[in-house]
Amino acid sequence: MTDNLVFFRKIRILLTPLLLLTGNSIIGTVILLLLLDTSDCLSLFFKHNCTTNWNYQKYDKIIDLCHYFIAIFILSINGKIKKEFLFLLIVFYLWRCIGVILFIRYKDPRILIPFFDFIKELLVIYVFFKNNIYVYIIGIVLKIMFEIFLHGKKIKYV
Fold first, then answer.
1. Which of 23, 18, 54 is nearest to 36 (CA)?
2. DSSP label at residue 81
């Protein structure tokens, strides 16, 4: 793996404890999750194609799951979200965990399409649209379309 990809992955891991500081702020947690998830994309400015790099893909998915676990834990203990929504977060988290395990086992990105990553989007919708079921449905459809675009073909990892 290139030095820049490793550098940005380390930055992302080192910034993870900041999630603990968001404590009572759902918006803070959402913003930090979005920033942490996109921080390693800065490596794209260095012209690295991380989509075909197996080590990058594997660790990216694992780090995402760690971030989500911490965020869900924090949001569950601060009591700022409804129990029904917390349950929904946990279901999507566990669903994604299954997908990541299968992805790592078979090294086929197409596996990630039905096991799409919807945690950040769920949180954004919850913060800005609360209980609008139509926004959740539209969000899921758009996310699946994005996953098909991103992971819809077999990739030979390097």
1. 18
2. S
